[in-house]
Amino acid sequence: MDVIRDVLDNQIVDRNQRKMGKVDGIVIELRDGQPPRLAYLETGATTLAQRLHPRLARWVAAVERQWGAKNSEPYRIPWSKIRNIGIDVEVDVDAEQTSALAYEQWLREQVIKRIPGGS
Amino acid sequence: MKKLLEIALGIVTSIGGFLDVGAIATAAEAGSAFGFHLIWAIILGTICVICLVEMSGRLAAVSQHTLADAVRERFGFNFYILPLVAEIIVDFLILGAEIGGVCIALQLVTGISFQWWALPVAFAIWLLLWKGTFGLIENGISVLGLVTLVFVVATFKLHPALPDVAEGLLPIVPQQDTTHYLFIAVAILGALISPYLFYFYSSGAVEDKWDAGYLGVNRAVAGLGMGFGSIVSLGVLIVAAQVLQPRGIQVDSYEQAALMLTQPFGYWGFILFAASLGIACFGAALEVTLDTAYITAQAFGWNWGENLHPREAARFSFVYTVFVFLASLLMVVGIDPLQLTLFSMALTAVILPIAILPFLVLMNDRQYVGEHRNGWLSNSVVIFTIALSFVLAIVAIPLEILGG
Amino acid sequence: MKKLLFLGLLLELAACSRSSSHEKLLKSLQTVQSWTATAQMVGETWQQGAVPDAYAEQTLKKSQEEIARETKDLTEPSAQKTQQIQETIQKLIAAVKHRQKGTIAAPLQQLSTQHQQLNTLLKAQEKQP
Predict the structure, then answer these.
(1) Residues 115-154 of B with CB under 8 A from A
(2) What is Dmax (Cα atoms) for chain C?
(3) pTM score of the predicted model
(4) Domain assignment present for C85
């Protein structure tokens, strides 16, 4: 498997095929005397911004701490939770229970449901 | 039988959906200012758009990826951010122009200034997206769009001299008004080869759950639908050339273009022009708004889909809600709709390389499309047209702006 | 040598600005011509009942405004002609305002004559290098 080509930037779906973000980053664990290990997938705006520029990442984090769901931590999925890597990366979690959808949920509750026809 | 029905429906929606504010404005301007001399630009743009629409349907059917998904995956986010931002900016201006087109149509009929219509029109667009389904939007609005065939009927009624029309197939640059000629050529190409069309089409194919069995349908719909659709565009150009140019009317605003059908059809001609403009722009505005929400949601991996209830795709619904009202503000403040249209169409031509070249790479990548890769012909057609549009745009836009 | 080059450059610039002012004049005249033709067609189609009253009035007013804007950049004898055209359009507007189809024929005839005279002026300007 080619991690950058086949995993990075792919769609992540949960066990119910619910879209929960893209693979914005991959965390590799370095271990003494042993080969490095693929540890986590990361998804979140801060990780994405970090890839463009560190300053942008700080800025995005500051905005996210202030507004909306007030969640600036990228969501990490342990490599062991990956069920299948195909067109999408399928992971064995329930997206609605994770902070990956913090902003989706916040917008749904605070904005969308308050517009007539949105609930 | 089911396939045939789908092809027929696809062709109808393509004809109905072909015209938008850009196609009408650029064709009217071209015909009134240069007679038949810019017909070649419509033909060239149509051939290119047929290739590109076919490709985006093929990509979706074979790889199950929308264009935006595939570009981010293949080239990474650090590249994808460029076409994404460029496309959002251009979509914003185009949406403003499409809303302007609907508002002008209402102004023509009611006499109430277009600025007053901007917010109600934006609200109507939003309401359809909020309540409607993809099928309703794609099929319903496009079937209404068949009213634009009135331009083809008018062409037959006006009996244009065929040798003169045929001469327009050759790109001959006139001695006078050269920069304006080139600028309009760029605007025509930009209006026909709109990137929002491919992003939208591939998202639609994924929403409709196409697979490799749809390749034939896709080819027929792209070729015949876009081909017939461009006949409507040609109709606008020819009618403008037959009615407005001999009188010396050069279209500088939509009020002038509105006169072009009164000669063949009288009062009904005026009403049909307003109806064509209004419906075509309304349909296009729906598409552009959805397109922006699609590519944003796909860029970040959010839930998306016009068939989902807004609460199931909160961020997606939020994006189109905010976007459509923001774009309507361009009209509220009173920017001239025709100038905005021409400018945003020319700007589209500038961003074409960055939007289309990664797409071409994907269409030649076995990883995505396997044995259904592009042939050399479609590759060459697209590269040639994109390069030509880009070079013309870089030359003509600064000159046009300097020339006032 | 340098001085010669400089002189050449100056001449070039002068020629450029002169031709561009001539081009500007041509462009203004063309715009006036196009809007005069528009006003005429609006008047005729209104007379035939082929366009709504509100549209006709608005578009005639717009033609008048556009022509007035270009008139500022014009010199005699063109400026005088465009002045007359504006006055005639004013008569068209009055006829549309009062919904009197009978009274629009005379100013329409007048506008048609003035349009032809303007075209003659335009042709003469176009012939100048």
Answers:
(1) 130-131
(2) 73
(3) 0.92
(4) yes
